[in-house]
Fold this sequence. Notes:
By secondary structure, chain A is mainly alpha-helical. Chain A has helices at about 1-25, 40-65, 75-115, 120-145.
Amino acid sequence: MKHDRIAGILLIVFAAFIYWQSCRLPEPLLQDKLGPDALPKLYAIILGSLGLIISAKGFFKATEKNKRISPDWKTWWHDYRFVVFSFVMFFVYIQAMKYAGFLIATLLYLPAMMLVIGSRNKKSVLTAVITTACVTLGIFFSFTYLLNIFLPSGTVF
Amino acid sequence: MLDLFAVGISQIFHIQVLLLLFVGTVVGIIFGCIPGFTIVMGCALALPFTFGMSSMQGLAVMIGIMTGGLAGGQITGILLGIPGTPSSVATCFDGHPMSENGEPGTALATGTWASFFGGIVSAVVLAFTMPYLAQMALKFGPWEFFSMIIFGLTIIASLSGKSLAKGVAAGVLGLIAACFGTDPLDGSPRFDFGSSELAGGFSFLPILIGLFAFSQLMKNLEGMNLKNESLRLTRNLSFNSKNVIKRIFCFPGNLLRSSLIGTFFGALPGVGAATANIIAYDQAKKFSKTPEKFGTGITEGLVASESANNGTGGGLLIPTMALGVPGDAIAAVMMGALILHGIQPGPLLIVEFPDLVYGVFVGYFVANFFMLGLMLYAVRFFVQLTRIPTHILVPVILVMCSIGSFAIQNRFFDMWVLFIFGILGYFMTKFGFPLAPTILGVILGPVGETNLRRALVSNDDWTLFFTRPISATFLILSLVSILYPFFQEMRERRKKAPPSQ
Lengths: 157, 501
């Protein structure tokens, strides 16, 4: 399994990083036998060895079956394009909320997402706009006036 | 005991609490019945809404969602053959054929009544075992707690995924995530990288929403999952409850056995509703006089699966409230809800907040009645909701995810935590890692570390972990749970070996 090899190696790298960082933690207090670094180190060692096992298994299985799946980018893109779009757009959304606040960011983000994922004809634009307005204003008013929960307010507006 | 129940009843029978319990049940059924949406997701997203409420009100919402969700999965399971949640997989085996045979109403009514009875049985078991378990656990010292947490973590790591290594790795990832921030004992910051926000550590809620809501939403957006199969509801949906109840009680043994299987496996850490319904179905088949009819739309099979999955509800709450060790991801969210309201689950819970504990018992009991009523009288409404297209639903829920994460502490950093753990969760599922061990690691990590180090401060003798009987038992059980998958794999290999050669 190609997946297992990648996952295993990533785990090893991450474990090594955590171990390195744990070494830089301060010395424990006198009566504390373990100190703040003991458990993170232990976790890193366990995680690293598991990463080794997982990637080794991946290599072993790959040679055993000797099956190479040629990556077909077209079908991959077809299957995963919305996931990629959503990752990017969510990133932008959080950034936008930082500057423009919840109301404006959401009013832009929701219809954009709906139209990217869904179809783009007159009817779907209309439903996107209506649901956006209802949902955004609904959340805004219920959170601020009913539930007394703060929503992100922007730094610019 | 009875006076405590009276206290519980007085906690629940407030108009506000009842209303919230009802709303929770509605939300639960919605998240249960839409395929690709899970109960954990519903709980995680509803949690931020409860910040402003009292702890009893917040818990009422959670209990409602859990009860409704466990039952709601059967709607699409029966009508479409696609389980709404993993906890109703076995429901499809008989529920869908029964509905295809022209009896969708009967099938839904059977499933609903079975869920109801399963829930009630488990509520009774919960109310009578949890206090005793808590009383036992009151004698625990830090040694026992530490070993118990090790047991909880190992059993969920070994049972929740297909690969033991991946399960344990997922758990350790959660433990590491919990290390970020202030050290639980001496208060020094860990892994802060000079950032004041990282020094505060990751909050539990954004991690939870990221792992269980965000990543699942991304999965719903994959090309192959986008084809919406819309539900067509037949005109006549006659429930015929009287007949249905009669048919269910033709096999009282089946009903009781399945409910108890559900409760038992719910209480066992690591196995939740997703496993319990299949085990109960298998057992029902084994004990049945007509096993060959299973899978053709038989009442027994449907009853077994549905009573078992709602039975897990009460079971889940037993270790969560009595020991502070959640059995699976749903229980982990329930525990998170308690912690958010400033209540540390554990054996002291029933001593310090008996009103809350008995309130939960009564609330769970009442939630089952709400579920019954909603499923029987409002099923059309829920079916309509499953027709909302993915491209509308997913963005809206994503917005809920982000504000839910923000609301806990009003910091933007938590939205980034949500995003990062969402991506992590997505890739973990893609790479075949289970997510439940991670969230348990996040919750139990600090508790385990505190107890371990506290034990060593009070007495620096390491061997106490192995010589104190209860602690030793937990450690032996952990070892067994780690080794068990190896034995199982070996046995399966031996079985498989002859035909392949």
